[in-house]
Write a structure and sequence with these properties.
The structure holds two protein chains of two kinds. By secondary structure, chain A is mainly alpha-helical. Chain A has twelve helices and two strands, in the order αααααααααααββα. The radius of gyration of chain B is 24 Å and the shape is globular. Classes of the chains: A mainly alpha, B mainly alpha.
């Protein structure tokens, strides 16, 4: 395999890892205002992701950095084209993270309520916008001969892109609900499972429509296969949740997110930013760094990615215990 | 204003703001790790209480550091897309490696440290903060290597066909003489901030709440004050020595920055160091000057009579090399930030020396005395001085690189995103600045509140990981 293809796969892997991991963080963040009935329950939800959300978010930073290093043109074109959505995502990620860390520092209600809003919107906005951005990227954006974006915000908000946003939002909420069901004890665990099934029904409709639309546009067999596996995993996850098997339910939604993400990157390949005009399309070849840079990065990535995955997995193992309201200190 | 100017303001504001939290993080995490190690070794609960107290302050600060860091990475692509295209082949690799090697390590092990008090054996729990601390320093190296490429491009070739700088020697980028000098200088400067923070907070507690000192808290803050002050002084010495080394590298690779730092227009051998100049606003005509003979020659070249190039001859040389244009940075900004950096750092060391002397052998200045009242004020100022010195240093080194984005290769004006309008950049500039302003107020208030509350109870964690399934969490959001 050519190094440019290797790096396309690696970047797809990093974005996929990000969506699977921060996907449930976003879901949990949204559910703090939907599922939790009081402050203690809200704290249970926040503590299910407390030790891990920051490490999950680093997947985004590394995905962005790897795109910059391996495909500078891709990074430059994409980030300047999606300027306003990225600005909104950055603001959301900032208030959300500060909300996690600051909410419990004071006990008064106004303080907590303020940060609850920050956590909710800070989770909901990126949950929608990442879907809009990824689908919009596959859809293509108007680029001139210098690969610079020449459209407006309207070109980023096509119906297909907006459906993508609905898919990520509803799938992340379902994914987050099954994560909560897996990580909590008591009443909230059962409510989370029930809510996951309800949202999952919405997500299933949106996701099937999105998979069908993507596959019909692209027509490539691999896209059909990835999309089909995503749909199957999602349905399997729902069935597992119905029979009370939360670990498998969460695995199902995780695999579904991997499937949808793989489908989008397969539909994208070998382009990295397709242009809707006759000019400007960026591919893995014309957007790439030199073979020398890619070679060094390949060595570093193959040496350190397994180590990173190893210690992240260990941290999930350390915090494997379920928590409930009785674990929350006053 | 054009998109270029607004994008530059945005980079300046978001970077200076981000770098308030970075030195506090790097400095404080080591001090917290040291305090926890003392506790682990001695079993003395005062160290545990100090670990928890400064750990809280550390975390309030760390949250801001992470989120403002994401903006840093994203804005290269958002505001500076042509820059990203030009340098991505060289500059992207250290950035990506920083994330993979260091950010994952910092965030994962810090999560383990924060929430793991009752989940990990004490020795392993202690190891997690040391690993996270190591991660902060590792990340500093990679990002400084990337920045050093902009100051002194090495290990690359310009490819006329692709119109970009392409990496030819990765090790040359990682061992750029600029990063070898900048890395110790920056890290020592971060330790100065950490030391000054611990010293200032502790001294304030000692003076304001004398009960802490020998009372309930059994002199815990006296211990941490002395630790912080000594770290500040040792790191200050390291900052001076590495800064001296850095000055020589700068004279070698960016003589224009050195000339601008001195407001030196004509070549001089031997060159005098200008301690203070009051002149016309553009710095071209000095009215009052205090000069120290031979000192600049020494700082720049290591010999007392070495030649330091002036702005005029460098301007003439660069016009030959790069064509017509103005190749001098903003002289008043570079001149004054350079001096402000040195002054703020130096004054913090003098203050720490005075404070150490005044608290020697168990002495405690009382607020009923004149010097005690002044010491309380200076205790508040102390952490701000090295913090300001860090900001001045960065403003100096980045403004001193102008008009270049990558020295000698890419002018700043050629790096901005062509597809982003001035209005859009202005919108995000206002958005980020307003948000950062609000968060700064919240952050500082939260810090002050935590400092006023004082030492938390020791609440020693279990010596073995807890197996009671119903035990409350040792730490919870």
């Amino acid at each position: 395999m050519e190094l440019t293809t290797v790096w396309f796969v690696l970047i797809a892997f990093l974005w996929t890892g990000y969506l699977v991991l921060e996907g449930f963080d976003f879901g949990v963040g949204i559910l703090t205002r939907v599922l939790a009935r009081d402050d203690r329950e809200r704290r249970v939800l926040l503590n299910t992701i407390g030790p891990v959300w920051d490490g999950n978010e680093v997947w985004l930073i590394v995905a962005g950095g790897a795109t910059f290093a391996a495909f500078p043109e891709w990074y430059a074109t994409l980030f300047s084209a999606y300027y306003l959505p990225l600005f909104a995502i950055l603001v959301a990620l900032i208030v959300r993270a500060v909300g996690f860390e600051y909410r419990h520092k004071r006990t008064d209600d106004a303080w907590k309520r303020g940060w609850d809003h920050a956590i909710f919107w800070g989770s909901a906005v990126p949950a929608v916008l990442w879907g809009v951005a990824l689908a919009g990227l596959v859809n293509g954006i108007p680029l001139d001969a210098d690969h610079d974006f020449v459209g407006s915000v309207a070109d980023l908000l096509t119906p297909y892109a907006l459906l993508g946003g609905l898919v990520t939002l509803s799938v992340f909420v379902t994914h987050g609900a099954f994560f909560i069901a897996l990580k909590t004890v008591g009443d909230i665990r059962h409510r989370a499972r029930a809510l996951g099934l309800r949202w999952g029904a919405v997500a299933a409709v949106a996701a099937v429509a999105f998979v069908g639309w993507t596959a019909a546009r692209d027509g490539d067999l691999a896209v059909w296969v990835a999309g089909g596996l995503a749909a199957l995993s999602f349905v399997a996850g729902m069935l597992a949740a119905r029979s009370g098997r939360e670990g498998w339910a969460f695995t199902g939604t995780a695999l579904a997110i991997m499937g949808v993400s793989s489908m989008l990157f397969l539909a994208l390949f070998p382009d990295v930013v397709p242009s809707t005009l006759a000019t400007g399309t960026l591919t893995t070849t014309n957007a790439a760094s030199t073979p020398y840079t890619l070679e060094i990065m390949t060595w570093v990535a193959s040496a350190f990615t397994p180590i990173v995955i190893g210690y992240q997995a260990w941290s999930y193992w350390v915090f494997r215990r379920r928590i409930g309201v009785h674990h929350i200190p006053a | 204003m054009e998109a270029l100017d607004i994008a530059r303001w945005q980079f300046g504001i978001t970077t200076v703001y981000h770098f308030f939290f970075v030195p506090v993080t790097i400095g404080l995490i080591f001090l917290v790790a040291i305090l926890q190690t003392f506790w682990h070794r001695t079993g003395d609960e005062r160290y545990l209480r100090l670990t928890r107290f400064f750990g809280k302050l550390f975390l309030i600060n760390f949250a801001m550091g992470i989120v403002t860091g994401i903006v840093q990475e994203f804005q290269f692509g958002m505001n500076w897309s042509d820059y990203s295209r030009f340098v991505g082949d060289v500059f992207g690799a250290p950035l990506a490696i920083e994330g993979l090697l260091a950010f994952f390590m910092e965030s994962t092990f810090l999560g383990l440290w924060i929430f793991g008090w009752d989940r990990l054996k004490p020795a392993i729990h202690l190891a997690t903060i040391w690993i996270a601390a190591f991660g902060t320093v590792l990340s500093a190296y990679f990002i400084l290597a990337a920045n050093s490429f902009m100051q002194n491009p090495v290990g690359f070739a310009f490819n006329a066909e692709s119109g970009r700088a392409e990496l030819t020697d990765f090790m040359a980028v990682m061992t750029n003489p600029v990063v070898l000098a900048t890395f110790p200088h920056t890290i020592f400067a971060c330790f100065m901030v950490g030391g000054a923070f611990v010293a200032g907070v502790s001294l304030w507690r000692m003076l304001r709440h004398p009960g802490d000192d020998g009372g309930d808290d059994d002199g815990a803050f006296r211990t941490s004050f002395r630790l912080g002050a000594v770290v500040l002084l040792v790191a200050g010495l390291g900052t001076m020595i590495s800064g001296d080394f850095q000055g020589k590298v700068m004279t070698e690779v960016q003589p224009m920055k050195m000339a601008a730092a001195e407001g030196l227009y004509e070549d001089e051998a031997p060159a005098a160091f200008s301690a203070l100049t009051v002149g016309t606003l553009d710095g071209s005509e000095p009215l009052v000057e205090i000069k120290i003979p031979h000192l600049l020659s020494y700082l720049g070249t290591g010999t007392w009579d070495g030649e330091i190039r002036g702005i005029n001859s460098l301007q003439a040389e660069y016009e030959q090399l790069y064509g017509p244009g103005d190749y001098a940075p903003n002289i008043p900004v570079t001149y004054w930030t350079f001096r402000a950096m040195i002054t703020a750092g130096g004054v913090s060391m003098l203050l720490a020396t005075w404070m150490l002397w005044a608290t020697r052998g168990g002495r405690s200045p009382s607020l009923s005395t004149f010097s005690g009242r002044w010491m309380l004020r200076w205790a508040v100022v102390l952490p701000l001085l090295p913090l300001a010195a860090n900001s001045f240093g960065w403003i100096f080194t980045e403004m001193g690189r102008q008009p270049w984005l990558v020295f000698g290769l890419l002018p700043t004006s050629a790096g901005v995103s062509p597809s982003v309008s001035a209005g859009t950049v202005l919108f995000s500039l206002i958005g980020f600045t307003a948000l950062y302003g609000v968060l700064a107020v919240i952050e500082v208030k939260l810090m002050l509140r935590t400092i006023r509350t004082g030492l938390p109870a020791a609440d020693p964690p279990p010596t073995e990981p807890s197996h009671d399934p119903d035990a409350p969490l040792a730490f919870a959001y």
